[in-house]
Each structure stands twice: as C-alpha cells, then as structure tokens.
C-alpha cells in the first residue's frame, strides 16, 4: 500500500473502497448541503480552466453533483461518471434524472483500477474525495494515463491529512468554526494522504511527476499525460 503513515495504512485496510447502500443514502443527503455544493461549483470552475471541450470522466463520482455543476458551466462537454459502488451509481442516475439530464450525462459502474473505457477516450479525467478509498492507487493512476488522450490532464481533488492552518482559517470564516472543526476531526478517521505523499504517488506511475495545489479546502493533484511527440 503506497505512501501512507502506519496509522492511515491500518485505517485503509478496514475502510471500504466502494460506499455501500446505507452510506450512499447518508452521503447523498450530506453532500446536498450548501458547503458541499459550493465546493463542487468552485472545483468545476477549476476543472474547466484546464479543459472545457470534449469528453470528461469523473471517477468515484458518488451522487454525481460535480457532473451537474460541470454541465451547468460547460453544457457542450460530454460528461461521464463512474463509481465502484452500484448503490452510488443508482443514486447518481436518480439525481441526474431529477435534473432532467439523463440523456446528456452517463454514469456507469467501474473500478479505478480497471477503467472500462478504451485507450485515449477522454480529454480530461477528474475525481473528488475518492482517491483515498482506492486500494491500488498506482494501478488506478496508470489506468487514468491509459484512458487519457495525449497532452491532457488528470485532476484529482481530495482532503489531505495536513491542511495548512490559513486554509482552515479561511474555511472557518466562510462556513463557521463548528463545521471546520467537524471537517478537521473527519481527517482522523479516513486514510487521507499527506500533501507530500499525495504528490509523490505520481512518481511510480506512467505520469512520473505530479504537482499539488489547494482549491478551497481540497488538495488537487495535477497530472499531465505528455503529447507522445514531446517524449
Ligand atoms: C467520498 S465519496 C466522493 C463522491 C463524489 N466524488 C463527491 O465528491 O461527492 C467517494 C466515492 O468514491 C467511490 N470509490 C471508491 N473507490 C473507488 C474505486 N476504486 N473506483 C471507483 N470509485 C471508487 C465510492 O464508492 C464513493 O462513491
């Protein structure tokens, strides 16, 4: 298991990869709250600053909220969601149907370690709050590299275990101290990476190198598949 502290390595062993049915119901409700919805909007804007045309794959899409925000901001894009949990896929499909977008946004079951799409299928691959669940992140990152077109980005957003104090302070100003403390406490029961280990995940993959930045309270691992001509 790559680059986790011993305590978080232990957490990862017991932590389920796909979110089961009851967790899906709870997560769907919780992530409908304004603090999550605002964050999806900010992340969608960040994603579209890298690529706003063509096709996008969202891995571990959960209830599919990010796909809905992306469609609002870039209706021209072909959006596909994927999740290892069949309960989450059904939930995302229900949310997308309720938004009247089931002809436009597709969601299917699949594991990041065996992405059910052909080589070079996507102009961008994204993921939010999911990579810390993945049992084999190195294989998954190589799979992402395979399904990306050359000269394209993967953007993987997640909570890290060492969020800098100024970012937490900013969150407290925006959403209040209670939500910030609960969020911070949540970091002790999930196998989150530290920022450095998150960035270093890329070292042993086909991407070879990754960079991180913070987008609001989430850390984003930026990976680029080079154009084969520039290799
Ligand atoms: C915390 S939820 C985040 C959902 C959504 N991306 C969001 O930001 O609200 C993590 C999601 O990743 C999914 N997941 C976990 N491991 C996965 C894997 N190996 N491949 C695909 N999806 C995975 C889970 O089933 C769950 O729906």
Which tags fit this structure?
about 230 residues; alpha/beta; Rossmann fold; seven-stranded mixed sheet; 9 helices; 7 strands; binds S-adenosylmethionine
Give a brief description.
Helix 2 runs parallel beside helix 5, helix 3 (34-48) crosses helix 4 (65-73) and helix 7 packs across helix 8 (177-186).
Written account of the structure:
Helix 6 links the parallel strand 4 (about 120-130) and strand 5 (about 150-160). The protein has a single domain, classed as Rossmann fold, CATH 3.40.50.150. Helix 2 (about 20-30) packs parallel to helix 5 and helix 3 (about 35-50) packs across helix 4. The radius of gyration is 17 Å and the shape is globular. It has nine helices and seven strands. The protein is about 40% helix and about 20% strand. The protein starts with 5 loop residues before the first helix and ends in a 6-residue tail after the last strand. The chain has about 230 residues and is an alpha/beta fold. Strands 3-2-1-4-5-7-6 form a seven-stranded mixed sheet. Bound molecules: S-adenosylmethionine. S-adenosylmethionine (SAM) binds near residues 60, 111, 112 and 130.
